Amino acid sequence: MVRHYEWEPSTVVDLRIDPMAYWLVGHGREFFVRQVQGPADEKWDFGVLGAIDIANPVEPLAGDEHLLSVQKPQSDAWWQDMQEFTDAVGMQDPRVFPMPVPRALQNGDQLDKLSDLDGPPVFTDHAKAVVGIIDHAICLPHYRFRNAQGGTRILRAWHQSGVYQSDARVPFGREYSAAEIDAAIRAADGNENDALRELGLVGFGNGGETHLARGASHGTHVLDLAAGAEPGTMEAPPPIIAVNLPPIVARETTGAFLGMYFVFGVEFILRRARQLAPGLPVIINFSFALSGGPRGGVHPLTRCLRQLIRAHKAQPEGGQVTLVTAAGNRNLAQSHGWQRLKDTGEDGAPERFSWKLQPGDTTANMLDIWFSSEEEPDAGLEFEPEILLKLVAPGGQQIDDASFAEPGLRHLKLDGKVIGQALLRREGEKRLSLSLILAPTDPGRSGREPAPPGEWQVMAKVVTSGEDPVIMEAWVMRDDVIPGFPDTGRQSYLIDRSKSLWTEDGWPTEWDAPDATSGLRHGGSLNVLSLGDMSICVGAAMQERGVRDRETGPSPYSGGPLPRKSPMYDGEQVDVSAIADRSKLRPGVRAAGTQGGARVAMNGSSVAAPQVVRAHLDAVSGSAPPSTEPRMGRTVLEAPPELPVR
Amino acid sequence: MPISQATQATQATQATQATQATQATQATQATQATGGTGDVGSPLGLMTARDGIVGPWEGSHSPSELTAHSHDNLRMWPDWSRQMAAVADIVGRITYLEDTSNAGITVVLAAANDQHKVGTLFRPTLQDFEAQTAIVYDYADLRGDRMQEIMDQIGGTTAYFATLLPMTAGRMAKTLELLSLVQTVAALVAQRCKHSLACRRPDAFSAQIQPAIAMPGHGALPSGHATEAFAIAETLRRLIPTGVKTPSLDDMLFHQAARIAVNRTVAGLHYPADSFAGAALGFLVADILAGMAGVGNRVVVTANFDGRGIDTSDFFASRVWNNNQRQSFGNVVRFSAGSVAADESPIVNWFWQEAENEW
User: Fold this and answer.
1) Phi and psi (nearest 5°) for A582?
2) Which of B144, B145, B316 lies nearest to residue A193, judging by beta carbons?
3) CB spacing of A214 vs B145 below 8 angstroms
4) Which of A241, A353, B112, B313 sees the fewest Cβ atoms within 10 Å?
5) What is the DSSP string of A289-356?
6) Do the domain assignments include residue A109?
7) Residue A519: how many CB atoms within 10 A of its CB?
8) Are A269 and A286 in contact (CB under 8 A)?
9) Which domain-ending residue is among A520, A551, A566?
10) What distance separates the 2 farthest-apart alpha carbons in chain B?
11) Does the pLDDT at position A47 exceed 90?
């Protein structure tokens, strides 16, 4: 059946909009379905804020760049106003990150600054460092985070999806003090389930959250590995400052909504640490990953973090800051591929990626394509490129070219309805990026037009004035569902028939052939969020790789860096690794379940990162990996005795 | 007397032949019907064996007389028989007053030659049920976590208490019998109340509940599972000697009971209100049973549940059990120290003593 595809240009130009967030806000709406009981028609929805009302949480970045949090844009006209606003205040190259914040969590139309507390008592116990954690579903009253007297070791906690309190010092959500957590623990007689109810962290109906009613929760497990202990067993148990990300952030696995919540979270931890534990080093664990956007520390979020950390250290109360991140679990996701465009003349043939969209997928999929010059990557693209995007729909129907003579936005329509978005933008002087988003293949009950499932051929042709080959690197954004969320997002992936997915003995292929010239690539699956020298990137290791071979090696899914010869390589690396799996048949390491006394096994680089946090505190030793393995870094930590891996 | 004997012999032979013919048929049928394990004698086999050994009537003699009403005799009866006797004793003392104008029911206990009101249940309003249905919807989030428990607990909950204690059929047979008694009484009382209160199930208020297991046909409130679970928990709390208890046993008994109750909400079958009502009723049943067993001062604490205005109140353990004692919760659940002492029943007392001796 022949269907009618066409590209439609948009009037939005030259705004550095996070593409997936823009799609979700404008066309996606997959996440805006929950009813919160309150004033009539109140929904889990964006509020509308004029940009001028939002306090910038951070000082300006280098030059005049700002990181600005905004909420629901109404239309293309709104974006036009945004452009005018940023011009008026002199922002160059602004990044715009939509950030859904329900009304119940805000103070009216005002998003206040994160501000200091009123002269709280200073933490005086002897500790080596403060452990900060930004995660989802951290059980704040858990007994593993208490001291020998039964009080909590958490100094302050920010539940970003909590109900806003009138005396808040946070812009949205709810902050808890140690005293409040202690009061809840006492009222509940130590029982975590009851204490969670007291604190309002668990509720059924009435817009309450249910994740902490489950037996296993991500944040609790991670914090236990980082800083948990049987009360009284640690000599100088580290104080903790915790941030619970909202469920919508954890649920949206491309990371499109992660940015501002994360930045606010880091600022919260550092600010409170300065007041409550002045001078102490702060180690922040962040077991979440971004799968897309500029890599190698040039992502606007990483630049913002760098700024925050520098500002913290410049203050007299600001101690050393270490950010520990997870390498990501995308090594087997078939999420990355590359092509060399040999001929960039007018008549050159385009190179292609085969992008498989799964049927029954209720969330949108995104392919991020980057263009760089191969020969002189630092010199940048010596052209004003014309990019031609050719798509072939599953089944072979050719779609007219989308031609970009300059950065811009196009919508793809099928039979008159929008099913896709292509956004071309410059990243600095060196690169161009083209983000292609396709609508869910299963519209559910939304009534929207689905994108056809199957194999899409994505071909890009770059016409330049230069002779140098152009390298196209593509990444498929993460789109699966993490446990505990009901969505049925299915992961799309790249197909490369020239490469076998399986080794001769039947295990999934984990590594690239050294002389690969193009196509699917495992390397380059690393978490985008890393800060180079300001962060430690931790990979997941497997204690025993096989039956015959009992050596420790990387977990098959653990992400790895780009090869150095890739023009997008910018120093990214896995620094160290820690045990996340005991063996192929016994995944995970055991740590605290949500309720006291429960132990659950979880794997992934999420659980490797906090072990490095602990190692910083306990000086746990490590050993060099058996062979040079970029996915394991320079050391594999031995599991500390309190956390037996067996 | 040869002729007579001969006649008798002929008659006997004829009779035998006739019988044999019948026997042949019956024998075939009997063999087809049962394998014959030796534990149970078939009527035909017992009949022919008797013929073989009985001999002529020798006259009867009297054994010692069984003491009437004695609970010592209970040991002789099969377990189902003594269960029925005990249940009859207990529920025979329980009657109900229907409050038709308020959709309520009062549980009345006969004691000391008088009728005593020991419990009331008032049905929530439709608006309350609507609000409660939203909570049931959210609890479905836990189905992944709880499904195995929900399936296990469809038919009963004893295993989940047995797991807390060394309570196996071999070691603790009488304790398990006592718990079976508790369950039966709890179920009878709960079903009687369910009939009167006539509460619709959550799936009548929303098509989005989509219960995980088949929705029972009887009314929602009170929850039978909650009634049974709390009755069992309270019974065990009183039964097990303090010296034998691990420190947190009481807490775990009631947290387990609460979890069993909540699991029914997770499955989509019950509102939290049903668990409040069931918990209150369960405590009452346990009090009545322990009272009739002669435990302590036999006092039955009045248990009142009022669902009118319960609105969005959610049920969890510490709402009805905290600081080592049962808790009232607002107007929803109110316990008031009663002055009613249950009549002691030797039958129920026997069950209790036999169970207690096992610990």
Assistant:
1) -80, -45
2) B316
3) yes
4) B112
5) ---SS--TT-SHHHHHHHHHHHHHHTSTT---EEEEEE--S-TTS--EEEEEE---STTPPPEEEEEE
6) no
7) 17
8) no
9) A520
10) 98
11) no
Distance, in Å, from the CA atom of B106 to the CA atom of B137, rounded to the nearest integer, reads: 31
Of B258, B260, B130, B143, nearest to B210 (Cα)? B143
Same domain, A175 and A301: yes
- Predicted local confidence at residue A232, as pLDDT: 87
Q: Is B137 on the interface with A (CB under 8 A)?
A: yes
Say yes or no to pLDDT of B153 above 70: yes
Structural domain of A407:
5-13+332-520
Q: Identify whether A34 is part of a domain.
A: yes
**Cα–Cα distance, B273 to B330 (Å, whole number):** 13
Q: Which residue in this structure is represented by tokens 């990162």?
A: A609
Please tell me the least confidently modeled range out of A103-117, A615-629, B325-339.
Answer: A103-117
Contact A592, A618 (CB under 8 A): no
Q: Count the alpha carbons within 13 Å of A600 in the hemisphere toward its beta carbon.
A: 19
Distance from CA of A539 to the nearest CA of B (A): 29
Query: From chain A, which residues contact B within 8 Å (Cβ)?
Result: 37, 188-189, 191, 193-194, 197, 203-206, 208, 210-211, 213-215, 483-484, 486
pTM for this structure? 0.85
Decide: A204 and B314 in contact? Cβ < 8 Å.
yes
Q: Which of A450, A624, A616, A499 is nearest to A551 (CA)?
A: A624
Condensed to tens digits (0 to 9), the pLDDT of residues A482-518 reads: 767 766 678 899 999 888 888 888 888 898 887 777 7
Last residue of a domain, one of A520, A555, A588: A520
CATH fold of B78-356 reads Vanadium-containing Chloroperoxidase; domain 1 (1.20.144)
Task: Indicate whether A354 and A485 sit together in one domain.
Answer: yes
A485 in a domain, yes or no?
yes
Please give the Cα distance from A494 to A475 (Å, whole number).
9
Q: Is residue A158 part of a domain?
A: yes
Computed on alpha carbons and rounded to an integer, the radius of gyration of chain B in Å comes to: 27
CB contact (8 A) between residue B142 and residue A197: no
What domain count does chain A have?
4
The ipTM is: 0.78
Q: What is the C-alpha to C-alpha distance for residues B284 and B2, in angstroms, rounded to an integer?
A: 79
- B136 neighbourhood in chain A, CB within 8 Å: 205
What are the pLDDT digits (tens) for A310-366?
888 998 989 899 999 999 999 999 999 998 887 666 666 677 889 999 998 888 899
Statement to judge: residues A9 and A21 lie in one domain: no
